Every structure is written in C-alpha cells, then in structure tokens.
Amino acid sequence: MLFLKYVYLAIVALLLALILTNMFKKDKFLYQLDAALVIIPLILRLLLIK
Amino acid sequence: MKKIPKRIWTAAALCLFAAAVCVYLGVTFSSMWKDQPIYPGPGVTEIQMLSDYNPGLKGTHGDTEVYVLDSGKPGAAVLVLGGTHPNEPSGVVAAVALIENCQPKTGVLYVIPRANHSAFTCTDPQEGAPMFFTIATPGGDRTFRFGSRATNPIDQWPDSDVYVHRTSGQTLSGSETRNLNRAYPGSNSGTFTERVTYGITELVKQKDVKITVDLHEASPEYTTVNAIVAHQDAIELASWASMDMQMEGMNISIEASPTNLHGLSHRELGDFTDTLATLMETANPSQGRLRGRTNADLVVKGVDKYYVRARKAGSVTVEFTEAGIPIDERVARHICGIEQLCKAYNELGNEQTIELDGLPSYQEILTNGIGYYLSPGK
Fold first, then answer.
1. Domain limits of chain B?
2. Mutate to test the interface with B, among A22, A29, A50 (most CBs of B within 10 A)
3. Which terminus of chain A has fewer CB atoms gathered within 10 Å of its CB, N or C?
4. Which uninterrupted H or E stretch holds B216?
C-alpha cells in the first residue's frame, strides 16, 4: 500500500505539472482561473497537508 | 527586448494567488494536528508513548500518549482506550476524566485517551460534523476535538477495494482498512493502522494487562448500545459489573463478542493476549442516521427532535426523550462501567486487585455535569 501511495503522489505531481503548463498556454483568463482553482487541492495533496 | 505576452502575466498572478490560498489552508489544516491539552491529575505517575511498545510509530502521527496511574502497590493492570473512534466523543472525555481524577489504591491503570491519534485530525466526509465541541467547567470552557472514525488518509492511502484482516483472512469493505477497531492484533510491518494496534497489543502483553476496556459510542438506532461487549473469557466479569451498574440505575446489557467477526479489540485482544477484553457502547445521536442538524450542541447536549419522533414511532429501542442523551450521561456510563468492571474483578476472587479511587459516581456526574470533574485548563 505504501508503494501505491507514492504512485498516487506521482500521478498528482504529473497532473499538477500538466495543468500548470496548460495554464501558461491558454489565452482566455477564465481557463487560467479554472486551472488556478484546480491546482490548489493538488498542491495540498502533494504536500500531504490535506 | 521581446514583450512578455499578457497571458504569462495573468498566469503568474494566478499562481501567486493559488500559492497564497495554499499557505492559508496549509496553516489552517496543520493546526488540526495540534492536540488539545490534557492536565494530568494527582494519580498520574508517568506519561509514556505508544512508540515505547512499537518503536516503528516514533515520529509518526500514530504515536500517542499512554498515561500511567501507578498506585505503587502490587495489583492488577487495567487498560482504558478512549478515542479508538474520535467521532465517539464520550470515550475520549471519559478517558480524560480518568487521567485528571483517578487515583488507584492498588494496581496500575493505563489510559490511552487518543488511541487513533491520526483520526483526531480530520472529520468524516459528508457528515457535516463539527471539528470541536466544548464542555463547561467551573473555570471556563474546555475544548475537545471531534474527529473521524478512521485514520486520516494523509497517513494511510489508498484504501483497498476489499479489506482483508491480516490474521483471520476475513474480508470487509475497503473503507474498514483505516478503522482501528478492525485492525487488531496488528502488525509492526503492516499498514499505519495495524502498527498502532500492534503497539496497543504489545502494551497489553508486556504489562500483563488483566482488563481492557475500549470506550465507544454508536448511533441510537444501532442495536448494540448501552451495552458491554465482552470476549467469552470476560463474560462473567461483564455480567457482575452490569448487575452493579443496573443497581446504580442504568439500563445496560451484555453482548458476547462474535467469534467470527475479526479485528475488533474485544475479539483479538481476548484471543491473542491474556487480558479480559471488553468494549462499552453508549448511544450518541450525533453519529446517527436519523439526526437533524449536526453541530457541537448535538454532540454535547444530545437533543434531537427527529430521534424523539423515531422513538415514538418505535424505530429506536433506546429511550430517547426531549431531554436527549447528553454527554454527561454517556461519560457517566463509561466511568461507572470501568469502576464496576474493576470491582467485579476484585470480587471474583482474583489474587491481584485493582482499586480505583477519586472517581465521581454515576449520580454525581448526572447532577454536576462532567465539566465539574474536568480541569478548567490554564
């Protein structure tokens, strides 16, 4: 199970990186705002805070 | 010089915004890891850690205090577990009241008030449960954490689809993987939750604990409430205790620990150690499925009009009136139960005895409230 936890965290990190990349590529502000809201729980998860 | 596109500026500003929100939330969530203070009473002679019994817990959120109340005179050892399920608050408050009031005259009392320490740091999803509740003491309000039934997912994740109990092979829902009271006798190489129960099992073995009392609560509609659940070796002890409790005015029943339901303290500690394993249940409306508004008032006062209606309709077997089932009554049951189990152990002619002094009676707690017997804090 500990192994799966690190797989899960790796998936979270990958998703976070992809969303951040996309955030800097999008022209529309609303898309960027969407991305900013989505990364908050991902950061908290990655840091094992929540 | 090449002009930086506007989208880069807005993305950078939003990153800063997200970072600020994360810092704020991080500080807020991290404050949940701070334990509410417990003020050791005159009976406490030592504060150990569970990692003294399972070193693998050291430095983890699973490590928790073990309060030792040693009379200094030979006698039996008793272990009381509060906070196995931190959403069952009367067990925690009863354990704290023991630490702050009890003075054993013979034997040793071990109290673990936050058995699943990790589960105090979160609440169950979709329950709308309060994070804190307060009890009035003569010197001001005393705050307690209301936690989750299971270990915080931060400490153990992901859950398997099916939980396979380690020693019996019994299968349960995957959501039980993080339930402390499905993880006995535990393993020092197992999951986070199993490592905690391994520490408790080791304590029972190493200290030759004669009686274990695990304090719980359940929904009022659950059939096993106002009951002592006992391993087959502890049935005689529980029967004696229940008779004395009934004489003090409590309705209390005895339930035999099912032999085919594994992982529970009353089953596995009874099977794997020499202790007389018992578990006590009171009726807690803040856990029930029929409850109305869920808040700290419901936890403490236990008043719920929907349970009154359910009782009138015959859907709830436990007595539930407009006065509710306040935490004072639920804690009084636990404290009286522990005292009576110890008395019964002595009366059954065991060579070693355990005599507890300094505890308020059932009626005294009902009259004065449990807050009267808690330290007002500093």
1. 36-373
2. A50
3. N
4. strand B209-218
